[in-house]
Amino acid sequence: MSNVNVTLAMNGNAHDTTKVLSLQINYIPEFVTRMAEEEFNDSPENRRKGLEQLKELLNDHKMTKGIDFEDDFLLAYLLHNKFNADGALSGIRHLFNLRKNHSYFFRNIPFDFTTIPSGQFITVLPYRRSDGSVTVHFEFGKVFWNEISIETFKQLGFIIYQQLLRNPVTQVAGINAIYDFSNT
């Protein structure tokens, strides 16, 4: 799909590119900052207080005591919980439990999944929607279970979402999914 077609599909006007953002974005647009403030209570003061409270809670919890977490990792959980440190702690505990109970999510995939058709069932579209969100296209008809295990299938989905959620714009604007069941 050409850039003009993507622009047209997103805005309805091929000459209006003011709302088209690339997937790879290294700044936070003003409208995303406003969205974070209005919908997630984001502010410098809430960030400071939230990080302070969450670090204290993490240091007091046996599962996370002694781990030096990066601020950007903690901010993703605080943002999701509108800077409620208890809610952020709960989310981090869920991640630790996931790692404990389903450790394969966090392991390397033992083969080059890009070389087999079944490993190419997920596509992240190259442009964001006008609200800044990312769109992921799942084509389940490309999956052949003799080529890929269910664990690897789930692992690929998990990895894609985790990687996308590292971006602060995506944390605020979100992710959309298109599920294509043709040829299944």
Question: Roughly what is the average pLDDT, rounded to an integer?
Answer: 89
Strand-and-helix sequence, N→C?
HEHHHHEEEHHE
How helix-rich are the residues, as a percent range? 40-55%
Tally the helices. Answer: 7
Rg computed from alpha carbons, rounded to a whole number of angstroms? 19 Å
The side-by-side strand order for the widest beta sheet comes to 2-4-5
Shape: flat
For the secondary structure, the number of strands is 5
- Which structural class do you get from the secondary structure elements? mainly alpha
**Termini gap:** 24 Å
Would you identify the regions where 5 or more consecutive residues have pLDDT less than 50? 1-17
- Proportion of strand residues: 5-15%
Taking the sheet with the most strands, its summary is: 3 strands, mixed
List the SSEs and their pairings.
Layout: H1 3-11, E1 21-22, H2 30-40, H3 44-60, H4 71-80, H5 85-101, E2 122-124, E3 127-128, E4 134-139, H6 150-164, H7 168-173, E5 175-180
Parallel strand pairs: 4-5
Antiparallel strand pairs: 1-3, 2-4
Helix pairs in contact: 3-4, 3-5, 4-5
Protein name: CRAL-TRIO domain-containing protein
GO molecular function: phosphatidylinositol bisphosphate binding
InterPro entries: CRAL-TRIO_dom_sf, CRAL/TRIO_N_dom_sf
Write structural notes for this entry:
- One of its GO terms (cellular component) is membrane.
- This is CRAL-TRIO domain-containing protein.
- GO terms for molecular function: phosphatidylinositol bisphosphate binding.
- The chain has 7 helices and 5 strands, in the order H-E-H-H-H-H-E-E-E-H-H-E.
- By secondary structure, the protein is mainly α.
- The strands form 2 sheets. A 3-stranded mixed sheet has the order 2-4-5.
